[in-house]
Every structure is written in C-alpha cells, then in structure tokens.
Amino acid sequence: MRLSTAYLGVTGLLLILLTGLVLHAFQERKNAGPLLSQMADMVNRLNLTDLCLFTEASYTRHLAMTDLNTPFQDSPFSFEHFPTGALVLPPPHLGRNRGRVD
Question: What's the domain range around 80?
Fold first, then answer.
C-alpha cells in the first residue's frame, strides 16, 4: 500500500468522524432547547448575577467573592500565576479607602 493511499484513507475517515460530530452537536443543541429555556427562567426568577468569565483562578472565577490579598496567597511577593489576573481589576469598593480611616 502506498503512503498516499493510507493518508487519503485516514483523512477520509477523519472527515466522516468530523461530520458525525457536527451533526451530533446540532441534534444535542436542539434537544437541550427546553432545558436551556428553563435554566434561563430560573436565572431570571432568582436574580442570579455571578458569571464565570475565567476558569483559571478562584479570584478571577468569581469576582464578587474575592479580596485584595487572594492573588498573593502563596507569598506576598509572588508573581501573578495566571494571565487573567492582569486582565481583571479588583472591585471598586476594595480600593476606595486604601486602608485609611475617614
């Protein structure tokens, strides 16, 4: 068997597999429609606000549940481990007084 024949055979099988996966995704999306609408109604009814924007670190995962020292929990002089820490600023209420008592 020539290598080009093997390559074309594997490529053809992978294209068939890709087509099957795309069709399966469309079918699952259509089947999940009622469940997704129920979940959207529940979010509106319960007034849920927290959205998971990043999945790396706990202090970027839930921005409403963090404080100023969480990124430095390993060491006060440690560098940022995750790139999303540079994208997300702390909530405004944490930097308002900056430790001063008025």
Answer: 43-93
